[in-house]
Amino acid sequence: MTQVDRREFLTASSLAALGLSLEGQPGGPPPEPVIDIHQHVGYAGRANEGLVAHQRAMGVTTTVLLPAGRSVSTASTHVGKANGLQAQCLGNDACFQLAAAHPKAYVSGANEVPDLDDAVPEIERYLKRGAVLIGEQKFGVECDSPAMQKIYQLAQAFRVPVLMHWQFDMYNYGFERFGKMLAKYPGVNFIGHAQTWWANIDGKHTVQAGLYPKGAVTRGGLTDRYLSDHPNMYGDLSAGSGLNALTRDEDFTRDFLTRHQGKLLYGSDCTDVEGTGAKCQGAQTIAAIRRLAASKSIERKLLHDNAKQLFRL
Ligand SMILES: [Zn+2]
Ligand SMILES: [Zn+2]
Hints:
Layout: H1 3-17, E1 35-39, H2 48-58, E2 62-65, H3 92-101, E3 106-108, H4 119-128, E4 134-137, H5 146-158, E5 162-165, H6 178-184, E6 190-193, H7 195-199, H8 222-229, E7 233-236, H9 239-247, H10 250-259, E8 264-265, H11 281-292, H12 296-310
Parallel strand pairs: 1-2, 2-3, 4-5, 5-6, 6-7, 7-8
The protein binds zinc ion (2 copies).
């Protein structure tokens, strides 16, 4: 062992003793890439510098930005309440500008309020500019309405996924009927997100259990069946709802992550600026995936490989 080898060995072993590794350290191997499929520009008023620092702190190497639709007062925006995705999020132009400023690290989706007359041409304009998906669709519309079916047809034409926020009585109505859309549009990959999507991993879920149900999960939930029965249904692990679903019954989760290992995608949907620690739900979701994935290969699929394939990154 030369002096240099010995120094490197000692550094590695002392880091290991602290539960750390040389990965990402100067001279160490590059960090494993992580794709975050769910972030927003202007989220809860956060500046772009805060978003970029947050993503770096979380160890994210590629971020998918999800634009809001335009601000309008319609039934589908709950008379403006859902503008900015109900969280001050900015639209297509702001997302494209940030992605253009960081061409390797950021890509953008395309979005619009789906029942506006010009929703399809507006979204199409950004798909032609390279948007990697349609979303985040978070509006008060029936999931099988003519307006939404036009969105699905557009997604089919451009071969991009559609990301939908499912929230009972608020956004995307008719979750129990969505199987018909999955069967009708087999060429469209759908990504399920948010409270009603995650609450329904439980076969015994009821509306009365609320949006963030706790405790043991019974197999056979509607979400689990959509994932099992439809090759075009994917799941977005982001937000408090995703983290709650991962941590409420860890024995169920290990099995769920194994069974749907090719269908689940890491996202943060995280508003803070820290990017680490107790305040950062996105960092906690990464930690939960690392803890609960039954193998390194499953962990890598959830944190990176599935998204790379689905969005052709
Ligand atoms: Zn979101
Ligand atoms: Zn965070």
